[in-house]
Design a protein that fits this description.
The protein is built from 2 helices and no strands. The protein has about 90 residues and is mainly alpha-helical. The termini are far apart.
């Protein structure tokens, strides 16, 4: 039992100096800036998002040029008379 308590204390202490698993930077001499938060990576992510938006716009334009309607998310159809409970049927 004492060994399990010691292991628990060590793991708790380790978790206090290792918050980078959740994307946070550890304080003091521990850790480093997470890769996703570096200026280079932020710029790369932004470029990839812009390229994806351009590809999406080009695909939509190609679909419209081909004479097809672009895909649209369907809305749920309104309830029909048969789906209305008997006590709410219009008279």
């Amino acid at each position: 039992m004492p060994l399990m308590g010691l292991i628990a204390l060590v793991l708790i202490a380790f978790s206090l100096v290792w918050p980078q698993g959740q994307g946070d930077r550890s304080w003091g001499p521990f850790g480093h800036t997470p890769v996703q938060q570096t200026p280079e990576m932020k710029a790369k992510i932004k470029r990839e998002q812009e390229a994806a938006a351009r590809r999406d716009a080009a695909a939509r334009k190609a679909i419209e040029a081909a004479g097809q309607a672009p895909p649209v998310l369907e809305e749920p159809a309104p309830a029909s008379q048969s789906q209305v409970p008997p006590d709410q049927v219009p008279q």
